[in-house]
Design goal:
The protein is 41% helix and 19% strand. The strands form two sheets. The protein has an eight-stranded mixed beta sheet with strand order 7-6-8-9-10-11-13-12, sandwiched between helices. A five-stranded parallel beta sheet has the order 2-3-4-1-5, sandwiched between helices. The mean pLDDT is 94.
Length: 416
């Protein structure tokens, strides 16, 4: 089976959404593999149809109403008696998409397993009033990760915690380090990772940014300043890993503070980047507002240490989103920093309760004691220092804090 035939969300969509008669809303970055995932489920089912808003004929059927759409989605030419899968791609580009989809689902939802895919508004329209409430389960598709490439997955958060508590490192497949190094270099988007060619990757990244800004952002916002937003996006790889200064960006772009904030919000809604906010509960002299930003495509980041930290952040966010989307808690990714500039890179929380903290060290495997400043305040008992150097798995305990210093290829293989 090839790498892309079985993405990590395939089984959970079939089990949780289809199994309970819900639509599956699959959102995520452009070119992360949403359509491929949906089409693979369709191919395995052998019944159903794919329709995309980018197809003029499909748009005509969509506007004609639910009955015409049902006829199209059932006309796959097969003889199977299995329930057909209806893939509706990019329908969020229609201003009335929610109302039209509600009408189709309420009339014919029991006759189809429905997958709706999109890169932006599926996420945006979850906020506030939602006429589709109770009719769908949302899922967030992330780029490839070390665990997914190795064919592994921590379906339960407890299995990850138990694994990192083990005195021995996990048994790794041959080539695990090489696969991790490729992931760090080419990023986790399927096309550049699978092609593993520098020139292809450069062209792919340029084309992806062009489409995000001049197609997706144009459709979402109707902003006239697309070239300036593109300039903002090009500045962001140099801001990875540090508290974000909107004021600095404002000065460099020569626009208003609120304008930069609005542009950043648009880019985040389009899955160009994600933000991590400080955890403040019980943290003395904590930073309150300043987020850190990371890119979904960490290969955009030139600095090796920042790229490594971005990769780890992406892996941790993928696990948080997966566990939350599967109903295994309310997981979130935060960081710790106080006004004395003590900092821990990442903190996993469940229902706002700290679970385990992480520190990233690209070129240094010595223990960083910064976590000791926070551990007693927030009540964590497990801390992992992730290093880029392979072959490391060291355990120690300091003041009741279980500490693991371990190689990234090993630790990240235990996630999702």
């Amino acid at each position: 089976m090839s790498l892309l035939e079985e993405r990590y969300l395939s089984n959970i969509i079939s089990k949780m959404a289809f199994g309970f008669g819900k639509m599956a809303f699959v959102a995520g970055p452009r070119q992360v593999g949403k359509t491929t995932l949906a089409k693979d489920l369709l191919a395995k089912r052998g019944a159903g149809k794919y329709g995309t808003w980018d197809d003029k004929d499909f748009r005509k059927l969509w506007h004609k109403g639910p009955a015409s759409l049902r006829t199209f989605l059932q006309s796959n030419g097969g003889t199977t008696t299995k329930k057909p899968i209806a893939i509706l791609d990019e329908i969020h580009k229609d201003r009335r998409w929610k109302g039209n989809l509600k009408g189709f689902y309420d009339l014919y939802g029991t006759s189809f397993d429905v997958i709706v895919t999109g890169s932006a508004r599926l996420n945006i329209y979850r906020r506030g009033g939602d006429s589709l409430l109770g009719r769908y389960f949302p899922f967030r598709l992330h780029p490839l990760s070390q665990a997914e490439i190795l064919g592994k997955r921590a379906d339960e958060p407890t299995s990850f915690i138990e694994s990192i508590m083990s005195p021995s490192p996990p048994a790794l497949q041959a080539g695990s380090v090489t696969k991790f190094e490729r992931l760090l270099k080419f990023g986790g988007f399927p096309d550049p990772y699978l092609n593993q060619n520098d020139q292809f990757s450069a062209l792919w990244r340029s084309g992806r940014l062009e489409k995000i800004i001049h197609e997706d952002l144009r459709d979402l916002s109707r902003l006239p300043e697309l070239s300036q937003v593109e300039a903002l996006a090009l500045l962001m790889p140099d801001r990875i890993g540090s508290p974000l200064s909107v004021q600095s960006l404002r000065e460099e772009l020569e626009v208003a503070y609120d304008t930069v904030k609005r542009w950043l919000n648009y880019l985040e809604n389009l899955y160009f980047h994600f933000t991590i906010r400080p955890f403040t509960t019980r943290v003395a002299r904590s930073l309150k507002k300043e987020p850190k930003i990371y890119l979904y495509d960490w290969s955009e980041v030139e600095d090796h240490g920042a790229r490594f930290e971005n990769l780890v952040a992406s892996h941790l966010l993928k696990a948080c989103d997966y566990w939350s989307d599967c109903g295994r808690g309310q997981w979130d990714l935060r960081y710790l920093r106080d006004k004395d500039k003590f900092e821990v890179d990442f903190l996993l929380t469940n229902k706002n309760k700290p679970v385990v903290s992480f520190e990233c060290k690209y070129s240094d495997d010595r223990f960083d004691p910064s976590v000791l400043k926070f551990a007693g305040q927030i009540g964590i008992t497990n801390h992992i220092q992730i290093v880029a150097k392979p072959g490391i798995w060291q355990r120690r305990e300091i003041d009741g804090l279980n500490i693991l210093i371990a190689s990234a290829d090993a630790v990240l293989s235990l996630l999702v």
